[in-house]
Amino acid sequence: MNISYVKKYSPALGRDMEYKVYGDNGHPVLVFPSQDGRFYDYQDFDMVGVLSTFIDKGYIRLICVDSIDRETWSDMQGDYHRRIELHERWYHYIVDELIPEVRHYMSETFIVTGCSMGGYHAGNFFFRRPDIFDTLLALSGLYYASYFFPNYNDSLIYDNSPYDFLRNMPNEHYYWDVYRHRRIVMCVGQGAWEDELLDSTRQMDALLREKNVPAWIDYWGYDSAHDWAWWRKQIVYFMDKLLMPTVNDYVI
What we know:
The chain is an alpha/beta fold.
């Protein structure tokens, strides 16, 4: 497996940012780390290892990006506007700088995935930019911003709260038809430390059904906890279905 490490200055953020790419070919998979995580966590927690067969066979290449969650979503005592404004700059770093850099060709679309806070980021980027992302694979995600910004809202927070902006999106908005032609997979366990994520996933499930957007919302058992051991099982299970639809008769 070819592994590339990149450290490059981001004009949007005014600092150097790092990421790793695993593999040379295949469908690109943009990977967000869990809360406060780093670009190397996916490898350190053996998520790259369990996906190595898909990478080695050229089915996928992983692009594992860095987060700045400690300065944004996790800085609960920090100024709300400063936090969300910095997050938005990070969003534009990913969309306007990193993605054009790792794309093999202009029309290439990405799978986007992540666990926990990474699941939130995956959902947020997917629903904001379905022109870039053809598949969402979110594990144990939270899909509203109010958890991190209680009793406060502004336009930037709203724009980064998928449940809220989808709930209020006009039915005639062309994105609804785009979503209907994308693949949406959200998974959450019903075990330890999943309560808030389970509730948020159920809300998204109901909303997508109401809007007639096909999605595979998968609720794993009461033993399935908010933990890497379960995410390793889930990522292989779903990636196999997504990459081999004709073999596994995968239908959302």
